[in-house]
Design a protein that fits this description.
Elements: H1 2-7, H2 10-24, H3 29-41, H4 43-74, H5 78-99, H6 113-125, H7 128-137, H8 149-173, H9 175-184, H10 186-206
Membrane topology: Multi-pass membrane protein
Subcellular location: Cell membrane
Pfam families: LysE
Length: about 210
């Protein structure tokens, strides 16, 4: 595992995190749940919700890495197919974000710390879109030539979850202020999300 990390291209990992940061600030169920938890239960509840969501992301990453490892062992050529399916899904997300309008949707938080953590975890685990996104996004930044793809996915997933914990935690802590701003600029942020998803897809096609 650590040997694979040492061989991973620093520029690719940096590019991955730059795109991840852009994604952290796009509206979605996780963001809204964290904001709602912070509003209803205060900063600690918001942070607890973010921790639950991040653990859910890690679970999706582990499942994706394990499944992809088995698939590539049986069908090595499937890697390119997965990449192109990922591009198609990112284009779909871009279109959906563009059409989303100015609303985030109604997502309720939980006031208690454990309740917020548990609900954040379950909300993320039971969201099939997260699993699809992990399968679409993470493999694009891997290189079979430097080591097992599933090793790289686990490392990238860990970075993604840690960054999400920091970002969503900040949203939860500053929920009162942030929620008002998110609702006010919801339409703009959905358009930004569309360009982010579309830009990632375009880059992957050109590469």
């Amino acid at each position: 595992m650590f040997e694979t990390l040492a061989l991973m291209d620093g520029g690719v990992v940096a590019g991955f995190m730059i795109m991840a940061v852009a994604l952290y600030f796009t509206p979605g169920a996780d963001m809204m749940f964290t904001l709602a938890s912070g509003i209803s239960g205060g900063p600690r509840a918001g942070a607890a919700a973010a921790a639950g969501i991040s653990l859910g992301v890690l679970c999706h990453v582990v499942f994706a890495a394990a499944g992809l490892a088995v698939l590539l062992q049986s069908y090595p050529a499937a890697f390119d197919l997965i990449r192109y399916l990922g591009v198609a899904y990112l284009v779909y997300l871009a279109v959906q974000s563009w059409r989303a309008g100015s609303e985030f949707g109604d997502v309720r938080g939980r006031a208690g710390l454990f309740a917020a953590f548990r609900r954040g975890l379950l909300t993320n685990l039971l969201n099939p879109k997260v699993a699809l996104f992990v399968l679409a996004f993470l493999p694009q930044f891997t290189d079979p030539a430097i080591g097992p793809v599933w090793h790289q996915i686990l490392w990238l997933g860990l970075f993604l979850a840690l960054g999400g914990m920091i970002t969503d935690g900040a949203f939860g802590v500053f929920a009162g202020l942030m929620a008002a701003r998110m609702r006010r600029f919801g339409g703009v942020m959905n358009k930004v999300a569309s360009f982010v998803f579309g830009g990632i897809a375009a880059k992957l096609i050109l590469d």
